[in-house]
Amino acid sequence: MFHERLKNLREERKIRQMDVASKIGIARTTYASYEQGFREPDQSTLLKIADFFKVDIDYLLGRADTPFSNPSSHDPLNDPEMQLFFKDWDKLSPERQEEVKAFMRAQLRIQEEINNHKK
Questions:
Q1: What mean pLDDT is reported for the chain?
Q2: Distance CA 85, CA 66 (A)
């Protein structure tokens, strides 16, 4: 299960084995052996892999069907800082609300361009 998930995560992101290996500090051949199911990473490397792909270890190991054990915890609107930012939303004038929305749309477009460039 681990090797299949690992390969799928990398291929979904269109990243080369060499690039993942370099980012987590191991040889490409070592990483390739993880994807082929010939070896399994030690705990430290497993943590680096989970951090790199931004998924829970339980997902990598096949103990969970979703990449995050608590998906809502990764939702920016559930972030306490974001909640503080929007707590006075209703007090803003409609014009100011539109300005904030326009800014957020621009940020989303920028992020989309970055993501498209990575592909």
A1: 83
A2: 29
